[in-house]
Design goal:
With 341 residues, the protein is α/β, with parallel strands linked by helices. The protein has one domain: TIM Barrel (Alpha-Beta Barrel). It contains 13 helices and ten strands. The chain has an eight-stranded parallel barrel, surrounded by four helices. Strands 1-2 form a two-stranded antiparallel ribbon. Helix 3 runs parallel beside helix 4, helix 5 crosses helix 6 and helix 9 crosses helix 10. The chain is globular, with a radius of gyration of 21 Å. The chain starts with a helix and ends with a helix. The structure holds NADP nicotinamide-adenine-dinucleotide phosphate. NADP nicotinamide-adenine-dinucleotide phosphate (NAP) binds next to strand 10 and helix 11.
């Protein structure tokens, strides 16, 4: 019997030699199925940089593609990422099909027909035929415009999907009551809800509600207050050297940052981290060699104080102007919607 087991083990090792030595540590190779049948690469690269760092964005996006990321979340900065996408495809590093590119509806578009025109303009700046995900960025009407009906806008999103301008459609910062204004009446459900999810803003009930509805949650600001945030004084714990995070990290021989990016995944949520530092870009993707246990997740949840890094707020838009170079116009577009970020 023992002899047979030894033979079997040798055979298994011969058939699967790579398993124990060559673990693919990069989570960007994994995908998640959305409720509309499309798939989304798991680890997302966020692009919401401070305005003064916009010029660093093209290089950061190239580094992210080189490092393996395929899921790119844009934030009204299409002009600054378009060439990196085009170059990565034309040099054969990636195919368009492998990429997953998200964009957001301009905040000041409030009509059904306006949604399709807005996405066409975004596609022109991105130099693409379609995006993979188009999002309504926040249910509030930041400009205070009257006659802004979320169901009209959602119908516009459905039109955009039907016309093949986007593969999937979704929302950002939608609470339960906002989702409930769409879910009973829509033909296509939101595939995604982007929410701030991190140790100090766990959003447990809303995440669970979305998951019950089959809506994939994407976690923006996964680092929460663990990293310095401009304008924030007295941040709540944890920071990256917190003993709880360090102890979990040591258990898996990873860094506390990797625990932070892994935490949403082990809650069934897609993390969207952002960095302009190559070491961090790589580290934030190398999170497949371990998974957090339910106990680890529960320990991290204990940091929750329901405090978002920057609460969603109303603001008035800056002016529209076609003056200046394309780059100057693109920078103004970014600055116009940045106050909501
Ligand atoms: N839809 C919305 O309303 C909305 C709102 C906010 C954000 N978002 C999206 O979500 C993305 C992520 O949010 P976020 O920009 O606040 O990102 P984040 O990843 O939570 O935080 C970024 C900060 O963390 C630092 N960092 C990243 N990796 C690190 C590591 N391994 N170790 C130490 N520090 C690290 C970065 O510094 P370095 O650059 O030095 O690494 C940067 O200062 C945005 O870029 C955007 O695409 C969406």
């Amino acid at each position: 019997m023992l002899f047979l087991r030894v033979i079997l083990n040798v055979l298994l090792l011969w058939i699967y030699p790579a398993k124990s030595t060559n673990i693919d540590k990069t989570a960007s190779r994994d995908a998640r199925l959305l409720n509309d049948g499309n798939t989304m690469p798991l680890v997302t690269f966020g692009t919401l940089v401070p305005v003064e760092d916009l010029d660093k964005l093209p290089e950061a996006v190239c580094s992210a593609f080189e490092s393996g990321y395929r899921n790119l979340d844009t934030y009204y900065n299409e002009y600054f990422v378009a060439d990196s996408i085009k170059n990565a495809i034309s040099c054969g590093m990636v195919t368009r099909k492998e990429l997953f590119i998200s964009a957001k509806k301009s905040l000041d578009i409030c009509t059904r027909s306006g949604v399709v025109s807005d996405l066409k303009m975004t596609l022109k700046i991105l130099q693409l035929d379609y995006v993979d995900l188009f999002l309504i960025n926040t249910p509030i009407n930041p400009s205070g415009k009257k006659n802004c009906n979320v169901m009209d806008i959602w119908n516009g999103m459905e039109d955009a999907k039907k016309q093949g301008l986007t593969k999937s459609i979704g929302v950002v910062n939608f609470k339960k009551e906002d989702l409930d204004k769409i879910l009973p009446y829509c033909t296509t459900k939101p595939a995604v809800n982007q929410l701030e999810v991190n140790p100090t803003n766990t959003n447990i009930e809303l995440v669970e509600y979305c998951q019950k509805q089959g809506i994939m949650v994407m976690a923006y600001r996964p680092f929460g207050f663990t990293v310095p945030r401009p304008g924030v004084t007295n941040p709540p714990p944890p920071c990256l050297d917190d003993p709880v995070l360090v102890k979990i990290a040591e258990k898996y021989n990873v860094t506390a940052s990797q625990v932070i990016v892994r935490y949403p995944i082990d809650r069934g949520v897609v993390p969207m981290s952002r960095s302009t530092n190559m070491t961090n870009i790589e580290q934030n993707d190398e999170i497949n060699s371990f998974c957090l246990t339910d106990e680890d997740v529960a320990k991290i949840n204990e940091f929750n104080v329901n405090r978002p890094v920057y609460p969603v707020k109303s603001f008035t838009f800056g002016p529209d102007s076609k003056k200046g170079t394309k780059k100057e116009q693109a920078k103004r577009r970014y600055e116009k919607f940045y106050p909501l970020a």
